[in-house]
Every structure is written in C-alpha cells, then in structure tokens.
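Hey team,

Filing this mostly as a record. A colleague (T.K.) asked me to run one chain through the structure pipeline before their review meeting, and I want the input and output archived in the tracker in case anyone asks later how it was produced. No errors, nothing strange. Just documentation.

Input sequence:
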Amino acid sequence: MKTTWITPALLVTGVALLAGMNLTVPEGAPLHASAYVISLAGKYLSYAILALSLDLVWGYAGILSLGHGAFFALGGYVMGMHLMREIGARGVYGNAQLPDFMVFLGWHDLPWYWNGFDHFAVAALMVPLVPALLAFVFGWFAFRARVSGVYFSIITQALTYALMLAFFRNDMGFGGNNGLTDFKDMLGLPLQADATRVLLMVFSALILAGAYALCCAIVSSRFGKVLVAIREAEARIRFLAYRPESYKLLVWVVSAAIAGIGGALYVAQVGIINPSEFAPANSIEAVIWVAVGGRASLAGAILGAVLVNLGKTWFTGVLPEAWLYALGGLFILTTLFLQRGIIGLFNWRPGSRRPATSAVTATAREVAG
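Output structure:
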C-alpha cells in the first residue's frame, strides 16, 4: 500500500509532541500536557489497537464479532496477574505469596495458573497467547460448522457474556467483582510516575504502529485478497478449491492476539481490570468505533476509536446521561449517510473494498496463474 507509512508516522509524531509537552513544558503553562491527558491518550491508543483487530476480521473477512472485548479483557487480566504478583509484600496484608484479595477470601495457596506470572517474560508471552488460544478453540468449532453471519455474531456475544459471569465468581481466583487493582510498579518503574505514564503511552503508540503495519501486510498480501473474496462471496471461493474456514480461523486468531495486547496496555495505564470489561456492550461499542471511522480501512478504525472515545470523555463529563443516546444516534447517522465512515470523507481508504466480482475474479486469476 502506498499510504501504509502515513498512519504510523502521524501516530509517532503526535505522541512524540504530546510526550514533549508533558516532559519539557512547565506545569501551568498553556501547552503543558498533564498526567491525566497522557493517561487518556494511552487509553485511547489501547482502544485503537482493539478497533484495529476488529476491523481486520470484520472489515476484510466479513466476520462481525460482538464479543471481541473478551480477548481485550483476557489480555488485560493476564497483565493484571503479573502486576499483582509484582506487589509482593507491599500489599495491605503484607503477604508476599498471595495477592490481597486471596488473603481476604481465605485462600491458603496460590492457584497453579498463577505460577510464573511474577516474571514479566511469562506475562508478555501469555498476553497474546491466552486470547489466541481461546480464539483458536472457539473458531475451530464455529468455522468448521460453517457458522457465519448473524449466528456467529450472536455466539461471540454469548461467549463474552459467559466469561463475564465466570469472572464475577470469587472462586475463579481473579478477584471476583472487584477484579485486580492497586498495582505498584512494572519492571521496577512506578506506574504513577509521570515518566512511566509517558513511556507507556509512547510504547502503546509503537505497538499500535506495529500492529497497523502487520495488518497492512496481511490485507495487501495474497492471503488478504482471499479474505476479501471470502467476505464478498464465500460460496464461490469454495468452488475455487479454497477452504474458507482455514483462512477465517487464522485471521481470527491473529486478531484475538492483537486485541489481547491492547488489553494488556490498557490495564497497565488505567490501573484496574474487572469483569465489567467483558460486558457485551463494550464489544458492541468497539463495532461502532470501526463503523464510524470506516470499516475495511485500517486507518479508519484507529480514527474512529480515538474520535468516539474523545466524544465519550466530553459527554460523560458534561452530559453523562446523554452519552448512550449520542452514541446510538452517531451509529444510525453513520449507517445511513456515512457507509464508508469518516475516513471515506477524505477519499483515502487504504485497502478499500472492491466489488464482489473483482475480488473473486482476482483470486481466480491467482489460482489459474
């Protein structure tokens, strides 16, 4: 793609300016970026990673997931487990072996699935691996059963709702209703320090830029062309000797891993993870981000996530009771008048959609060639 470099460049430039405004501009100056603004920007970047992962499967493969927030939350819980283990004896109860909530609930031993999470390398490996594993198991059965369309969307929503109910249980060992919180530091860096917040924001931007480049490489490859063809005419692709379920499963697993990384970055910057992150409403809101920004446009997904959450921050501060109405109205207006999303207004859509005939024909030519 000729414009692949533009979005990462804009991301890095914007974040670098924001970091400079926090670290070099004195507090009280008009151009100073407060710690709150830095944390907010980091959170938006984490949401953008989730939107990007969703657009990869929905925009290019036609897989509408109403439960992608589950992968985001799982990545967050994995990072939360590591950060809880990092607290050590500095917790309220001073127990170096058990997190505070386990001591409070009367647990005597650390569950086996918590072992190893005191090491950052283990947590970093599990952040994408746990969501990817769940996506693989779920997708293996769903795609091979040829579940698609609205039926697939419904069972993804059921998946995240089931996980939400499970994580609310105290005996699951993840903090129950309260979740995981009161994190102290990460890799020896205090999470409340301004420099750490800036570092996490910059790292989130770099991860987002890397994820964007990866997604661009996927959708512009031969594999990506097959995904688009599956989205437009899956039955015809089967006649070309392709196995759509294999392509769907692979992109579904990759998407889940990306979403999990976004969730881990989110928790490190927000400082809490609880079962409400699994709520189906969060996954539906992510779909709205992608639709508003521009489905099948990776840059549009990022733009939609940032702009919609900026609006949410403003609305919930000024008119909190009106936010859901505004969000619903925005989605309706986008569906009726901006089918290509905001990015379509600029007539710049990297990896834009092609008609069904051209997509399938291109795949057929590759097979023949």
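Quick notes for T.K.: Residues 6-279 form one domain. The chain has one domain: 6-279.
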